[in-house]
Prior knowledge:
Helices cover 42% and strands 14% of the residues. By secondary structure, it is an alpha/beta fold. The protein is globular and about 50 Å long.
Amino acid sequence: MPTVSVLSLKGGVGKTSVVLGLAGAATVRGLATLVVDLDPQGNATSLLKAHKTRTTVADVLGHPTRETLEKALTPCDWEVAPGEVDVLPGHSSVIRFDAWAGGAWRPKLARALSHLDGYDLVLIDCPPSLGALTREALAASDLALVVTTPSYFGAQGVERAMAEIDEITKSVNPTLELAGIVVNRVRSVAEEHTYRNKELVEIYGRTTLFKPSIPDRIAVQQAEGFGQPVQLVRTAGGREVAEIFDTYLTSLLRKGA
Length: 257
Ligand SMILES: Nc1ncnc2c1ncn2[C@@H]1O[C@H](COP(=O)(O)OP(=O)(O)OP(=O)(O)O)[C@@H](O)[C@H]1O
Ligand SMILES: [Mg+2]
């Protein structure tokens, strides 16, 4: 059961879209997937239409016990037989766990998720910051997947995210590995995008970047609008993106094995 953190310092680069794309790819394969929504915005929770619970990830961080975890886990409205997606739902109040005072700390999410049972894949959707919540996610993960757009600030964000992963590997989670960098929303006709992509390859190496990159496709936004996985958007763009997520999933499952 690989646990994968999807993170970036920058907001709006496509973390949640990547989490949902991977969850969709996993359910098409019949896998049981859990999406952990660590973002106070709760986008993954609402897009998946997670069934309402009174207990959320905020309670789980407050009391990282098996009992609280089991109370919080909930199914969602996504129907992509034969697999299924459960959600550890987000809540705005989880923001109180994002403060980072420095110094020693004991991971709470990792403790809670150690009680998980029966999932083939766990995906953690991180908030757009490298605060204590993203640290909690990395401490609880086997793999870290960094998302960026092919832009100047995107590349800077990747550098910060890589430093954070390094830090967690050296401190609380020595088994954490970098799964790679996903470059999202690429427009092949944009020279700036080609330049930024090349720059990332030069800095981090060809093998660190997931291939192919994710193109900018309206299908990703349509999936959101329909409240469905992109795998059910029956357009050329939908199929193209779904195929890419399937390739990424194969790579993640291999790396997490
Ligand atoms: N490949 C893509 N093609 C077209 N639109 C995309 C693509 N990826 C993401 N988007 C759109 O960009 C917007 C931001 O994406 P998303 O919410 O996944 O980013 P995020 O990194 O999770 O944001 P936040 O940092 O706020 O959590 C969404 O409206 C989404 O539909
Ligand atoms: Mg998001």
